[in-house]
Structures are given as structure tokens and as C-alpha cells.
Hints:
Elements: E1 6-10, H1 20-26, H2 32-37, E2 40-42, H3 44-48, H4 50-63, H5 74-82, H6 86-90, H7 95-100, E3 102-105, E4 112-121, E5 137-146, E6 148-157, H8 158-166, H9 171-193, E7 195-197, E8 200-202, E9 214-217, H10 227-244, E10 256-260, H11 262-265, H12 278-285, E11 289-293, E12 307-311, E13 323-338, E14 342-356, E15 362-366
Parallel strand pairs: 2-13, 3-13, 9-15, 10-11
Antiparallel strand pairs: 1-3, 4-5, 6-14, 7-8, 10-12, 12-15, 13-14
Amino acid sequence: MKATNLNLEVRPSDYKGFIMDSFIKDNPGFSADNLAQMGITISQRVINDSTYMAFVKKYIEDAGLVNGEASLTTPLQFAQLWMPEVIDALYRARTASKIFGSKNIGTWELEQIVWTKLALTGRPNVYDDFSKANLASFNLNFATRDTIRFEMGIEVTELEQKRAGQMRQNAHQLKKNAVDLGFDILMNHVKWFGYRGEGKSVYGLLNAPDGDVTIQTVDRTFASSTTAQLITFLQGVINNAMTRLGGNYDPESDAAVLVLPLGAYTYLTTANDYNLTARKWLTENFPKVEVKVAPELDGAAADGDNLAIFYVPQVQNFKGGTVDLLDTSKLRLVGAVPTTKGFEESYSCSTAGAMIRCPMAYNVYEGV
């Protein structure tokens, strides 16, 4: 068993409008391989279909998507057809990716992804001329996650396309955008809540396996708390992270993220008689703690209570990040065929959900 290849990592700060013009400018040798690295692929069956690829070439030229003739290299024709807007849409951050970033790993057809878990072991003993030294060693294990694939198709007819053109619209483009949007919303949902069905167990940020997440119940909601009580909660959250990580989290120098539900966030700005708010207190005393909002946390507990998350993205002396959101394919053109009156295309995406790689740095609070 070997670990699954990492193709591309996108950090939360990278989600600021993924503009393809600048990407191509920075990568003058841009090719279909770059698309694959970004999780966007085309089935070899489609590439081998000369009839459909001829249609793609004609469509590109008719639409004026490139200057001069379209490239004769068929994967690049696919790239030219999709570059202008679809990749921007696929990398338009939704809450999970905006907060935790994401990784493109492996390939669309994988049933499972495999991650290595390495622990170094050993404890020194007091030296003696006649004693045997304790031996250092390591434990190497593998964590696996199932993947789930989804599909969606489009059909465009010549009459439909021409009628849309009369209204300065592109029926083909609009339907492709609908595919992007549908996949994007669904993948975000899976990364938060996982997926069960078809024999799959794909875990999300809020339904991770036992042992990966510790949920603590708070005494009172933000709505019923005073400013002083909110500050006490924030102090406890930070102290809990420091304690659980055994000194490997220093709030003075290490970044951390507090993720709140919509129903709780604004209460941080409630001022007391001295015009002090919990938000201001946090910024002044722990400037390395970033506050973010996720509507998925509203009513997300089993009993309908709100949840909050406090996590340290990068722990000292821990290789890799605390949380991985894993996509095996952002978008794949599985099949395409010209019809007597237009054409049909079938698309797919796949994800392995979320993996909490450092549970001690990921804390969930219920009842905020």
C-alpha cells in the first residue's frame, strides 16, 4: 500500500478569484497536464472520438474563444473550450474551502485514497557503561477514505442555441455553468457533512470517525451571554487548544481559526458598559486568532444546537496540516456525443470528503 499522490494544494488565502488569464501568463507552457493537476480531466474515449473533437474545434473557432485557428492538439482544444470561465467557477471558494483550503489528490477513478500516519517512538534512558540503550523506532500506518463520484449531464440543440443567441446568451455555456454550480454546492456539502449511501462512508468535517473529533458542550449560548462570559469562553477555547497540544501551540506566534455559525457571530460585537466587545478583546489580546463564519454550523448538532470550531491549521512539530479536504476530481468530461439536432455531454466529479489529520488541534463546541 502506498500513499495517494498530491496533485495540487490550494490554501484558504488562495481563494481570491482564480483568474485564468494570470494563471496562463504564469504558465506559458499550459497544457492538458495542468488541467489534470487542477482536477479537471477529459476521458480518453472523448479524445479518441474524432467526430466530437471536430465539433469542439469548430465550436471554439465559431465562438471566437481563441485568436486564429484552434490548436490541433485535442486535449488543448478541450482546455481552450473551458479555460475562460469554468475554472474560475470551480475554484470560487465556498465555506469549507475558504476556511480550510483543499487538495486535489489521486485520480477520478480511485475507490479509496490512502494517507500515511507516521509516529516516531522511543525514550532516552540514563547512561551507564553496562546498560543497554533504549531503541528508537517508528510506527507506520495508513489511513483510508472512500471516494464518492457524482454525475450530471447537459443536452443542447441547435434551435435552443440559436434562440439563446438572439438574446445574447449561450445555451451551452449556461448549462455548463449549471453543472459547475451543482457540483460545487454538492462537494461543499459533502465536505461538511459527509455522505452515506451506495456502500460508501465518506466523512466530513462534522461527522468524522470516532476519535477524530472531540465535541464539548458549552454552558450557555452566545445570545444569552454577557460580554464578560463571551470573553471567558474565548479564553477557555484558546487554553483548551494549548493544553491538548501540550505546548505545541503558542497563541502568541501560531495562527488559529475560530469558526462560528451565523446565529452566533454578531454577538461577539455586543458592547458592555465600557464599550468593550468580545471581538475587540480577542483582536487586541490574540491577534493571531482569525474569526470566520459558516452557515453550515447553524443547527448542525444532532439535537439542533449550533456548533463552533476552533482549530490550529499548522501545529508545531507536526508534518502536514490539521485538516485536509480531499478532491479526486473537480470536473471530468466522461462522455460526449453529437446528436442529430445538437449534442450531449456527461460530466462527473469525485471527492473523499474531509480528513482530520491532527485531532488534538481540532475542537468542536456545541451549544453556542
